[in-house]
Specification:
Blueprint (H helix, E strand, L loop, with lengths): L4 H8 L3 H8 L7 H14 L14 E7 L8 H4 L2 H11 L4 E7 L4 H4 L10 E5 L5 H9 L4 E4 L8 E4 L1 H15 L5 E6 L4 H16 L6 E5 L7 H9 L4 E4 L2 H13 L9 E3 L16 E3 L2 H17 L7 E4 L2 E3 L5
Parallel strand pairs: 1-2, 1-3, 3-4, 4-5, 5-11, 6-7, 6-8, 8-9
Antiparallel strand pairs: 10-12
Helix pairs in contact: 1-2, 1-3, 5-12, 8-9, 10-11
Length: 326
């Protein structure tokens, strides 16, 4: 026999509307009353109906957590409007309320009692505390992490390693013998590590002797001296970790009387609009944020609407942008 919210309300000695709010994870109800209702539902053998039957009619409430903007250069790489539009395009059959947040702390994230029910949380371009992920899991709220690849959790990330590998391969097609340098920042960052692996894998596979890795503390450290030091070391190809590093290097190379690609082959990464202001179009890998959003929409369809249990872990390949710097 099917158990209804009216049965649960009678067992828990409360109203059907209160039961409905609790079963839909509303934060308006106290923990004490919520626990009592959930215990009654479990006792009666209640099973929550899949939202699948309401496809096209259900209005989904999605929290999009962007984190605090510690890196002021982030908007040069990732467009939040493109991400949101991609999410909406990825779920064409349902209306969504996308609520942007800037905190990854669970208590602050759900502190506003009036915010009501949350169907899912998407974390974009930010690290997520384990405590927050645990809170979401305990409350059966699906969550997705973008641009990071944590083990055992749903994620969508760009294939940084493969993209960097392709750039080194392209440089070799332009010049058979290379003395390349990987110019990086934040060496312990997940994205840096992945891109460095791509550089090292390509150098190993194509038998490039003694590839060089140069770490800078911050973008402002790149100067004419940096350019000249690499030139004196015999470096003739700079594989920059991102477009901003590549752009800064190109400007100082020109200022030092050197030329790209005659003196240095040069590549970037990310497909930033910033590089459009350079005197030469940068060879780079473009990361399509709209596609990242669309794939997030696919995740919503699977994990939220259809309530599939299978882990959702996806790598998106970037698009090779051919410039004239290699």
């Amino acid at each position: 026999m099917k158990v209804t919210i009216y049965d649960i309300a009678k067992e828990a000695q409360t109203s059907p509307s209160t039961v409905s709010r609790v079963l839909n994870s509303s934060s308006l109800i106290s923990d004490e009353k919520s626990n009592k209702i959930l215990e009654a539902a479990k006792k009666l053998g209640y099973k929550k109906r899949s939202i699948r039957k309401q496809r096209g009619r259900a209005v989904l409430s999605i929290k999009l957590v962007l984190g605090r903007l510690k890196d002021k250069k982030l908007p040069l790489f990732y467009s939040v409007p493109d991400l949101i539009q991609g999410i909406q395009d990825g779920v064409p059959d349902n209306k969504m309320n996308i609520i942007c947040e800037t905190t990854t702390d669970a208590e602050q994230l759900f502190a506003n009692k009036k915010s009501g029910h949350t169907d899912a949380v998407i974390f974009a371009f930010t690290n997520v505390p384990k405590k927050t992920l645990k809170h979401l899991e305990e409350n059966s709220i699906p969550s997705l992490i973008l641009n990071r690849a944590p083990l055992g959790h749903d994620f969508i990330a760009f294939n940084n390693e493969e993209g960097m590998y392709e750039l080194v391969k392209s440089a070799l097609e332009s010049k058979k013998k290379l003395s390349p340098c990987f110019l990086e920042i934040n060496p312990k960052h997940e994205v840096t590590i992945e891109r460095r692996k791509g550089f090292e894998r390509a150098c190993s596979e194509f038998k490039i002797n003694k590839p060089h890795i140069e770490t800078i503390e911050e973008i402002g450290c790149i100067s004419n001296d940096t350019v000249n030091t690499l030139k004196n070391k015999g470096i003739d190809c700079v594989i920059a970790m991102n477009d901003i590093i590549a752009s800064k290097f190109m400007i100082h190379a020109l200022d030092a009387g050197l030329h790209v690609p005659d003196d240095f082959l040069l590549t970037g990464f990310d497909g930033s609009s910033f590089s459009n202001m350079l005197p030469k179009q940068l060879d780079t890998i473009s990361l399509e944020v709209h596609e990242l959003g669309q794939k997030s929409g696919e995740w919503i369809n699977r994990r939220v609407i259809s309530r599939e249990d299978e882990k959702f872990q996806l790598r998106i390949n970037g698009k090779r942008v051919k410039g004239n710097t290699i």
